[in-house]
Design goal:
The chain has 257 residues and is an alpha/beta fold. It is built from 10 helices and 7 strands.
Amino acid sequence: MKKTPRHILITGAAGAIGSALTQVFARQFPDAHFTLVDINEAVLIEKVRVLGKRADYVLWDLFQPESLAEGWQEVISKHGAVDILINCAGIMDIISFQGTGWNLGWKLLAVNLISPLRLMDLALADMKTGGCIINIASMAGRVPIAGCAYYSGAKAGLAMASEIAHNELSQRGIHVVTVYPGPIYSGLEAHARSQVKQGLVSRLIPTGEPNIIAQEIINAYLHNKARVIYPLPFAVAHYFNSVSQWVVAKASPQPLR
């Protein structure tokens, strides 16, 4: 039987998936304390109001991974070691490689890869047996979507690091779940969709619901599953990757710039 977590930290808690994860984990673990991380303070204030004394929030800019250690120490000094770390925060832009430029490219790498790895590093210093890390990667890290060189590179790196950590940390009794979402209805998805040429392919891409993927993720946690792939049709792209890479390279919508 799994140890009941006492402290759960969720990054990107103001976003669609992060909000849904906060809700399902709060229902499952009514005695856990939640640290909610984002840069959208107004949304975080409302979430903490709903959860009451069992939650607080911190404003961390994941574009600055070098600043995370100090904030992390403040959080664990108040609420103890993190038992479940959920790396959910992410940003996405679909722009050609040259059009992206280094400044935005570095931001995509820092937020989507470097900061999640840094938070894993910080969490593992004190995480006990029975702990869990949940990393929200992306199907964009499995197939070559046009205009996603930096985003997909970051998510591919996070996914591989997460899969390796799953194998290594099982020896310590720590479970790692790697999540491969396709498009999920959210602000991130709407922003990305606005950056590509619309056509038949873009209209037919399966798009999932935040509450459903959140339930899939908590089920993976409860039943010690290594990964979540949602919406389900994307399992084909994951497990038959060579074919899917060829198809996506030929058919993915083109960025507007």
